[in-house]
Amino acid sequence: MKKRFSRRHNSLLGAYPWAGPAALSLLVLVLLVAVLRFFVPGALMAVATPLWYTGSLLTAGVGNSTSFFSNKTDLMRERDRLLAENAAFYAKSAQLEAKVEDLERLLGDRTERTDAILAGVLTRPPVSPYDVLIIDTGSQSGVREGALVHGPGGMPLGRIQSTTGNTARVLLYSTPGTETESWIGDARLAVTLVGEGSGAMSAIVAREAGILVGDMVYAMGPGAQAVGVVSAVGNDPSSPRSRVDIKPLVNPFSITWVTIAP
Amino acid sequence: MMRIGSVAVAFISLFVFPWPVSFALILVASVFMPLAGVTLGILSDLLYFVPGSAFVPYGSLFGLVCTVGSLLMQRFVKTRIMGE
C-alpha cells in the first residue's frame, strides 16, 4: 500500500520550506544573544542601545503629533490650571526662600558639592515588562552595583542591579516583593514598604496609627526624602491592621533622567 | 511574507512598544511561526529580566506557552477542522 506523506511534515516550522531555516536562524541568534548577555554583557547592550534610542525618539514623536489634535478648550483649561499652579508655586517658593535665608543666618551654610552621576534612561516600564530601568551610564563612569539611584528632586527610585561598560540596570523599589524601610506621615511612623509593581507600593500599619490619604511617605535616612503619597487606606473593622496603598511621586513610566550616588 | 513581517514587527516592538503590545505581537508571530514565540520571549527576558525583578521570567514563560499553544493548534485543531 502506498504511504502518503503530508506536505505539512513539521508543525514546529510550518509548511513553507524557507520557514525552517529562518526559525532556526532566529533561535540561534537568540542563543548567541544569551551567550553575549552572560559572558559579554556589554556587547548585547551596545547592540540594543541604538534600538532603544530609536524607540524613545519614535515614542516622543508620536506624543508630539497627537498633541496637535488636542481639543482647544482642553488646552485653554490646562493653561489656566498651570498658571494658577505656577502662582501657587511662586508664593511657596518665596516663602521657602525666606525660610532658608533665616535658617542659614541661624545655622550657617553647609551646602556640600555632590558627586552624583547623571544618566539618561534608555528604557523604562511599560516597554520593560519588569520594574527595571536601563540607563545609558555604566561602570566606565563609576556606576557600581548596589548604588542608590535618585529621580527628579532627589527622590530615591531604586538600586543598580547590574552594570556593563556603558549601561546599567536599575531595580526599582516598586518591584513586586521588594521591601524598603520608610516613614509615613508627619509623625514619621516607621513602616516597611512592599513593592506592588508599576511604581505602586503598599504597607501594613496599625489601624490606630491615624494614617490618612494624602500623607507623605519618606525614605528612611538622612534628609527624609519623599518617595510617595498615600493613595488609599484600608478600613476593615474586623482587622487591627490596615493596608495602605502608596503611589509614587514620580511616575516611573515617564522618567527620563536619574542621578546615581557614587 | 506575513510570517517574516509578523516576526519582524514583534522583534522591533520589544524595543519600542509597551510590553502588553509586544506580548500580543509575539502571540501573533507564534501563530505564523511557532518557534518565534519562545525565541522572542527569551529575547525579551535577556533584555529586561534581572534577578529579583520577578519570581519567574514572564517573557520566556509566555513565549513557551505561545509556542506550545500554536503547536497544539496546528497539530490538532486544524486537522480536526480539515477532517470534518
State the low-pLDDT regions of chain A, or none: none
Strand order of the largest sheet of chain A: 1-2-5-4-3-12
Portion in helices of chain B: over 70%
Estimated radius of gyration of chain B: 14 Å
Q: How many E-type strands of chain B?
A: 0
- Secondary structural class of chain A: alpha+beta
Q: How many helices of chain B?
A: 4
Q: Are there runs of chain B of 5+ residues with pLDDT below 50, and where?
A: none
Largest interface: A-B, 43 and 37 residues
Tell me the name of the CATH class of the largest domain in chain A.
Mainly Beta
Sheet with the most strands of chain A?
A: 6 strands, antiparallel, barrel
Helical content of chain A stands at 25-40%
Q: How would a textbook summarize the main sheet of chain B?
A: none
Q: If you compute it from the alpha carbons, what radius of gyration of chain A comes out, rounded to the nearest whole angstrom?
A: 25 Å
- The CATH architecture assignment of the largest domain in chain A turns out to be Beta Barrel
Order of helices and strands of chain B: HHHH
What topology does this entry show?
The complex is a heterodimer of chains A (262) and B (84).
Chain A: H1 19-39, H2 41-67, H3 72-107, E1 117-123, E2 132-135, E3 148-150, E4 156-163, E5 168-172, E6 179-184, E7 189-197, E8 200-206, E9 216-219, E10 226-233, E11 241-248, E12 257-260
Antiparallel strand pairs in A: 1-2, 1-12, 2-5, 3-4, 3-12, 4-5, 6-7, 6-9, 7-8, 8-11, 9-10, 10-11
Helix pairs in contact in A: 1-2
Chain B: H1 2-16, H2 19-32, H3 34-48, H4 58-83
Describe this structure in words.
The complex is a heterodimer of chains A (262) and B (84). In chain A, helix 1 crosses helix 2 (41-67). In chain A, a hairpin with an 8-residue loop joins strand 1 and strand 2. A six-stranded antiparallel barrel of chain A has the order 1-2-5-4-3-12. A six-stranded antiparallel β-barrel of chain A has the order 6-7-8-11-10-9. The model of chain A has no long low-confidence stretch (mean pLDDT 79). In chain A, 32% of the residues lie in helices and 28% in strands. Chain A has helices at residues 19-39, 41-67, 72-107; strands at residues 117-123, 132-135, 148-150, 156-163, 168-172, 179-184, 189-197, 200-206, 216-219, 226-233, 241-248, 257-260. Chain A is of the alpha+beta class. Chain A is globular. Chain A has three helices and twelve strands. Chain A folds into two domains: 2-39; 114-262, Beta Barrel (Thrombin, subunit H). With 84 residues, chain B is mainly α. Chain B contains four helices and no strands. Chain B has helices at 2-16, 19-32, 34-48, 58-83. In chain B, helix 2 (19-32) packs parallel to helix 4 (58-83). Chain B starts with a helix and ends with a helix. Chains A and B meet through helix 1 and helix 2 of A and helix 1, helix 2, helix 3 and helix 4 of B.
